[in-house]
Design a protein that fits this description.
By secondary structure, the protein is mostly helical. It has 20 helices and no strands. The protein has a domain of 202 residues. The longest helix has 42 residues.
Amino acid sequence: MRDHREGETGCERVEQMVERTGTADRDGGADAPVTGRPAAAGSPPSYKSMNAFTPADEERQAGVRRMKRTATGLLLLVALVYALAKWASGAGAGTWADYVAAAAEAGMVGALADWFAVTAIFRHPLGVPIPHTAIIPHKKDQLGVSLGEFVGENFLSHDVVRQRLRAVGIGSRLGAWLAEPKNADRVTAELATALRGALAVLRDSDVQAVVGEAITRRADAQEIAPGIGKMLERVVADGGHKRVVDLVVSRAHDWLVLHGDSVMDAVQGGAPGWTPRFVDRRVGERVYKELLRFCAEMRDMPSHPARGALDRFLSDFANDLQSDTDTRSRVERLKGEVLGRGEVQDLIASAWTAVRSMIVAAAEDERSELRLRVRASLISLGARMATEPKVQDKVDSWVEGAAVHVVTTYRTEITSLITDTVAGWDAEHTTRKIEAHIGRDLQFIRINGTVVGSLAGVLIFTVSRALGA
């Protein structure tokens, strides 16, 4: 029991010496990383959330300490075996003692060499600033740069991104997901919420100003007379204006029938004062009857001369709108006067308010035509994406192209996130966290070094004895 306690105490002493070495290295070593001091101006910030030790890290650190004690205990064991084997060899115990001593000696060498290698990753062994030790504290920023470059070259390359996305089959998966009615309902609801949010953020005055300016600028930039002339020419050629003429003539005839007295009074009121009243009455009656007859004939006779004259007038006017410079100039001046009127600008501005209210109401109503059409379109699109290879290829190509564009365009920014994050870590905390995560496995290197060294020592001693014999 006494030997066991002494061996355990020896292990603890060695571990305490190693810990004190790391502390001295961090605090006062010649090449130790400077920690605990204010960061220099312009240096990256320290990310405390990344450096803070979590309960899981504490548990890992406890496992590292246990493995350190095991590896150090094995070193002390082979040292004790070496001492006893040498004593036995000197006492004449036989050749076996030499073999045991050789194995134990090589085991100690292997254990110490691997202890040095493992310790040098995190700190200066025994506090001595040996070159190329305390690699993580000293090379933290370079490791961050190398990690960023590694990620950029091997994970953010054009071919890797395209191959991975092609293997996923986003088009078919997304199509199968959208084809489910409940998923289409969810997407529709999210789109409606986003649309309402966007409309709520936009200020009506800004949108109205933009819409008004866009319409006015587009109208000013484009001459409208030729377009109106071509449209009028097609309307006349197709006879589309005849329905308008029929409607106007029919309404005029009906109005004359209802307001005959008003027409005659108007004619009599315009007659000279020196004419007799009965003459004015007869003239008014005559004018009224002629107007009534003229409207009736135009209404009932498709080949009425007035209709032909109107057709020729509209055809000539359509031609002038397209080719006559004076007519086109007058139309442009009229257009500018109309657009410049405050009533027209108010009408253009108020159009946005009406459209906005209509869209918001449709987005809020689950049974509105807008949402029902969007839902049906999503389900139809999902079914096509799930079953049609051409649609799948098109969606996959679009997604791949977008992802490749983002990766190739912003690769430096993405990798700089890794580089800057690592650069902002505190060296001491970074060393502790890395050691907590991989230190336990590294202690197996020390154990394996002890075992392999012992076996190699026995082999070398055996070969040497054989050759010497």
